Amino acid sequence: MAAKQGIPASALRVLEEALGMDLTAAGDTAEAVAAEDAYYLEQVTITEASEDDYEYEEISDDNFSIPEGEEDLAKAIQMVQEQATDIQILEQKTVLPSKQPTPEVIEDFLCNFLIKMGMTRTLDCFQSEWYELIQKGVTELRDIGNVPDVYTQNMLLENENKNLKKDLKHYKQAADKAREDLLKTQKERDFHRMHHKRIVQEKNKLINDLKGLKLHYASYEPTIRVLHEKHQALLKQKMLTSLERDRAVGQISGLQATLKHMEIGHNYHASEIRVVPNSEKENAPEGPTQKGLREAREKNKCKTKIKANTKDSEFPTDMQPNPNLYLCKENIGPAKFDYKLNNIFRLHELPVSCIIMHPRKDILVTCGEDRLWKLVGLPKGNVLLTGFGHTDWLSNCCFHPSGNKLATSSGDTTVKLWDLSKGDCILTFEGHNHAVWSCTWHSCGDFVASSSLDTTSKIWDVNSERCRCTLYGHTDSVNSIEFFPCSNTLLTGSADKTLSVWDARTGNCEQSLYGHMHSINDATFTPRGHMIASCDACGVTKLWDFRKLLPIVSIDIGPSPGNEVNFDSSGRVLAQASGSGVIHLLDLKSGQIHKLMGHESEAHTVVFSHDGEYLFSGGSDGTVRTWS
C-alpha cells in the first residue's frame, strides 16, 4: 500500500507549531511524533480479530455506602475542615514561578527559517530526509540539542532591525516632506519679506515725493507774491506811461496852438499877457497851451540842472573783454585739492567775517566783528595797516580794481571808502536803514554797490558822492551783491531764497532765479563769468548757467549752513566755508568733494590765492588759517 507523497501546507504549519512547542518533552513523545510523520512503502497483512479473543477485566461491585450512624458527624467535621483549609489557601498570595523560555531546537529553527524565506521545496526535501533518518534510528533528537541563544537573539535583532529600518524609512520620508514644507515656507517668507520691503520703499518714496511737492508748493507762494508785485509795478508803470503820453499829447497840441497864435498876432498876445497882473495870472484858469509851455519849461530846467552836475559818473558803454578768459585758457595745470594746514594767524579778537586778496600783490585784507579791518602781508602774516572808523561790526570788504582803495560795509548802516596809501577814510556813504551785508566795486572803479538788511541794494557814485540808484524787489534781507566781471550787471542773493540779476544803469531786475529752499547766504561768479555759485543756510550749494539762467546742479553739503563760496583762478574748484568748521572743495570736473579739517569752530570765509597754491580761511575764533 502506497503512502502519501506530499504534505499539505496547513498540515506542515500545524506540525511546525507542534514541533516548536512539544519536541523538548520526553523522548517517547518525540519518537511517537517521528514515527507518525515518517512515510515509506511497507507490505502489511490485516486480519480481522474476533471480539471473543479479547479478555476483559471484571470489576467487583462492592457497596461503598457509609453507614447511617457515621454519616452525620464525621462527614460534617471533614467538610468544615476542608472549607477552612481552602479559605486559608485562597487568602495566601501564591507566587507562581515564571516560565522559563524554552530554547528552540535545531530542526525547528531550520524549518522556521525555510518557511520564512519561502523555500517550500527545500523544506519538503529537508523534512523527508530528516524524518526518514529519525525513523531509521540514525539520528537521535536528544543528541542534536537546541539552537544557541545567540542565534535566536540575532534573529530577534534582525527582525527588530528590519522594523527599525522601516520606521527609519518612514521617518526619512516624513523628514523629506517636512524639509520640502520648510523650504516652501522659507520661500514664501522671503517673498513676503521682499514684498514688504518693496512696499516700505514705495511708501518712503511717496513720502519723499509728498514732502518735495509740499516744498515745491511752498516755493510757489513767494514766486506768486513776487509776480504779483511785479504785476502791480507794471500796472503802475503802464499808468505812468499813459499819463506821460497824455501829457506829451497835450504839450504837442499846446505847442501847435501856440504856433498858430504866434502866426496870427504874436505881438498882441504878448503885450496882453504882460499887462495881466501876477495875482490875476495865478488865479486865472490855465489853458492847454499855457500848461504845455509850463511843463516844457520845468522839464528843460530839470535837464539843465542835471547837466550842470558834472560830478556824476557815466556807466561805461564800451567794456573791455574779461581778462580772466585768457588766463583760464592758459592755466592748463591740474587742479589742487591736497591742501594741508600750514599756519594760523590770530588777527582779530572777534570772529573774522571776510578775507579778500589784493588784485596784484601777495596781500590780503581781513574784516572782523571787532570793527577793524587789517592789511596783512604774506606769507609771514604781519599786519601792515589797520583801519579804524566803523562803529559796529564789519561784514564785507572789496578792493578797487587798481588795488589802491578799499570799500568796507558794516552793521552801522554805512559803506566807507579807504585810501590804502594813507589808511584814512576818504568817503562815507549813508542811506541804508539797517545793517549793510556786502559791497562790491564796478570794474571801472567809479561805482560801489551795497546790499542791506533793509531788503534793498544801492549803487553809489564815487565821483558825485551820492546814491545813484536803489534796487527794489527782494522781500527779505539782501545778503550778497557782486558785479559781473567787466559789465554793468549786478547779482544779488537774498534771504527770500532768490537770486536776482539787475541792470545797474536802469536799476531794473532783469531776471530772478528760484530753486533754493532756504535763505541764500552768498553768491559769486566764476572768473570767466559763465557760471554762478550760491550757498544757503542749510548747506545746499547750487551751480547756475549764467548764459541760460538755468540751474546746473545742486549739492547738499548740509546740514550746517554754507557761509561763503569762492572759485579758484581757473574756475575748476569751488570752495565753501561751512558752519561746521569744514572747508569743502568741490571738483567741478569730476563732482568729488574734498574736506579740509582744521577749524575748531565755525568757518565764515574762504578765498584762494591768485596762483591757487594757497587757501585762506577765517573762523569765528578770530583766526585766519593758511592752507598749502
Number of strands: 28
Low-confidence stretches: 1-12, 14-41, 61-66, 266-284, 303-310
Q: Indicate the mean pLDDT.
A: 80
Number of helices: 11
Strand order of the largest sheet: 1-28-27-26
Kindly describe this structure.
The protein is an alpha+beta fold. 39% of the residues lie in helices and 26% in strands. α8 crosses α10. The protein is elongated.
Which tags fit this structure?
disordered N terminus; 4-stranded antiparallel β-sheet; alpha+beta; 11 helices; single chain; 628 residues
Topology summary:
Elements: H1 9-22, H2 27-37, H3 68-71, H4 73-91, H5 106-117, H6 120-136, H7 141-144, H8 149-275, H9 278-283, H10 288-308, H11 324-330, E1 341-346, E2 352-357, E3 363-368, E4 373-377, E5 383-387, E6 394-399, E7 405-410, E8 414-419, E9 424-430, E10 436-441, E11 447-452, E12 457-461, E13 466-471, E14 478-483, E15 489-494, E16 498-503, E17 508-514, E18 520-525, E19 531-536, E20 540-545, E21 550-556, E22 562-567, E23 573-578, E24 582-587, E25 593-597, E26 603-608, E27 615-619, E28 623-627
Antiparallel strand pairs: 1-28, 2-3, 3-4, 4-5, 6-7, 7-8, 8-9, 10-11, 11-12, 12-13, 14-15, 15-16, 16-17, 18-19, 19-20, 20-21, 22-23, 23-24, 24-25, 26-27, 27-28
In short:
It holds the Pfam family WD40. The protein is an alpha+beta fold and about 625 residues long.
